[in-house]
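It is worth pausing here to work through a concrete case rather than discussing structure prediction in the abstract. The textbook approach is simple: state the sequence, then state the predicted structure, then interpret. We follow exactly that order.
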Amino acid sequence: MHVRGRRRTGARVREHEEHQGHDDGGVGGPVVRLGAAELGAEPGERASLVQFSSAFCQPCRATRRILAEVAAMVGGVAHIEVDAEKNLDLVRALGIEKTPTVLVLDASGRIVRRGVGMPRKADVIAALGAAV
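Step two, the predicted structure:
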């Protein structure tokens, strides 16, 4: 059952990615570019893993660990965690409905992948391939 739950989480992330277009930045409007002003931290030189979290979200803690490990493995990639409750304007503008939500940004700050729920490390690494 535990493995099955992980597969569903990974499938949910992949399914969500397939429904988000690359041309619209994954948010259903004009191309969105996020930088330090919006994120509250400097983006990575090659890509950024942006995690929207909330204080009492258990999966957010595990997601934080996974994204930090991947960012440490891949040069030029930053992990940026955004407190969803303190950044409601950004959350609304990006259509974030649940935490954790992870956005993968390319070097220019364009959203190239989007996933909801705790991701698998392998899925995060694969998503980075679209950004670098």
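Step three, interpretation. Helices lie at 2-19, 36-39, 58-73, 88-94, 121-131. The first helix runs from residue 2 to 19.
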